[in-house]
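**User:** My hope is that you can spare some time for a protein that puzzles me. I have put the entry right below:
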Amino acid sequence: MGREHRMVDERRIVGGTHLWFKNGALLLVSWTLSILILVIVAKDNELSTLYNDVERPGGDLRLPKNTVGGLNYRRWDAKEDYRPVCFVRFENLCAENNKLGFFKTALHKVVKIRDLELKFYLYSPHEGTAGTTPNISPVPEGITTDTRALVRRITGRLTNPADGWRANIDLGNISEVRVNNLDYQVFHDGDLFFSAQSKRAIVSYEHPDVVLHGHAKLTAADGSTLESNHITWDIKEQHFSVKGVYVINRGGTITTGKSICVDTQLKSIDRQYAKPEGKERKWIAKL
């Protein structure tokens, strides 16, 4: 099995715009761990289905300790001509003890995800709502996440044998998620509405925001881009803040500056942050 990817095609999907959050699916800290919930918690979608074609002489099949391996996962809406709902792909997901001072401890764990690709497909519920701004990180209104209860639930689904399969992973005491190579895309009515790419992304219990760094790039619906080495993503407000140098490209017109806050379409939210500089080539070379 190793790192070989298994494809899951789930067609028993309930109706609604945010189908993949229903049936008890909650976000753990942020959208990053939603991939675990999509695969593990969603109704009629046990992790065992990922490896149901593995031949084994008998007994429980166990993956290497504290790792899930590679995964490709797709969902469609059966009530809407099987239109796509989401796509998740990663090369590996593992849980490790994190550092507390000079030592590593099981009381402070980190989830590491390599080459994470997330695609979400949103649709206007009916005519006359074309002007509504899509939520790039859709979370049910008024939902309260009990993170400890969710960790216990996910851990139980992973470690309890189902159809002779179980994962040997400990998701207790997770305080941080690190992603190497992130590609996040949101489509609205078939067109790309927003995307975010970065070499690294970090989210933790201490801060609700997602930190994108190591050459991060945001792309809006009209093709405009914003690039910087460090971008903070406010999930709740759907805002993006840059405290350092940034480069914005709007149809070939390049603007550079220091410190800016923008929305999902790269429109400046607070103009006092913007300090344009006429050093386009210099800053582009650094990104």
Remarks:
- Confidence is low (pLDDT under 50) at residues 1-35, 37-57, 139-148, 277-287.
- The first strand starts at residue 7 and ends at 10.
- Helices lie at 34-40, 147-159, 280-286.
